[in-house]
Amino acid sequence: MSGTDHGPDPEEPEPTVRLPALDTEPADRLTKTATEPAEPSGALRYAPAAGEPGAVRAGRFWSGRRIPSAITAAVALGLSGLFLYDVAAVRADRDAMAWRKTLADELATRHLDNVWIIVGAAVAAALGLWLIVLAVTPGERGVLPMTRRDPRGVRAGLDRHAAELVLRDRAMEVAGVRWTRVAVGRRRISARATSHFRDLDDVRRDLTTALGDAVGQLGLAKTPNLRVHVQRAEKKA
Amino acid sequence: MRTTLNRVLLGLIGLVLLVVGLSVLVGSLDMQRHWDFTMPGWWPFTGPKDVLLTAHSRTRYRSDGWWWPVVIAVLGILLLIALWWLFAQARSRRLRQLRVDSGDGQGALLRGRALESVLASESEADDGVEWAGARLVAKRGGPEARLVLGLEPHATPRDVVAGLDAAVLERARTSAGLDELPAEARLRAVRHRATRVS
Global pTM? Predict the structure, then answer.
């Protein structure tokens, strides 16, 4: 490992307190800036990042939710800016904009059973529910987490579409398969194929074995269930 | 970090919208009478003949001296938070440089982009990888690598990841003198036709 190549320099002031025998590697972690104190590596390694479950267990990938946040922030920015501008303008002895007068008037006169109020409230509630769902669900449903052998290893995720292509290539290698389509879900993989020669049962058995091996070679953290359907290809007219 | 921030703010805003929407609906559809429950006395929307904001409650504090400064201050704070949140989405925490301890007491500065391009080209040299992109991100504990790999036809994802672990990242760690280099990799598809080998 890198740490064994160069021991800590005794002349250099070392800001790190070394932990005895806890970690065999030297604790002189290099950080991107010299001003940041280095930390003992052992504790840091196992700290799960924000929103991510523990280190070795291959957890889901959590989406950063950048686009919904950007949209929400932009809307909030626009609304608060508009109100701020208008309130400040009125304070500076100018006339309020027409929309604000209308809004105040409508808010004060429309009854709650007005259809616009009901629709607006329903939309607000639905939007709120949607934002809460966005906030608490991991997202990134297109990425399947792969197994991670040790905590220092790479945290890899395989796109479902990539898995589909890999499995399709494997299925096409089976003798007797003319056409195939593989759909990779989060929990289930279903492969459909048509066969133009050989006994259907043989093709199905070979395909199931081949795809079973291929699914193993995907290296996914949770192996999905595999379903194979084989049909006789229609004779060309 | 940004993920947590985004999710907390989205959740809060969602909660506010949900509560406001539902409480208006309770009044609109007259649920208190239909389902026979009573809201506490301070509840603003009691029946379908209520309005959202009466002229009286809108202008109630207008004569007080503190009202307009408070309104403007609250709006201004909201504006600043929204602006900061929006810019936080555009910010990238890309690592510009990192210090390599050469062991003789003198450090060397390594440009983040140099390490990124090494990571990318070494990943591309790996078996089963058609193209690769790499990013180094500054995290609290040090740099973190983000890789995106396009899988060649007939690649084995498990072996690709094993190769990354064994060769690419290990070498990057060693050459940059890093104790550890946490890495995330996404394996993408490269579109290709289905071909029969035989």
Answer: 0.75
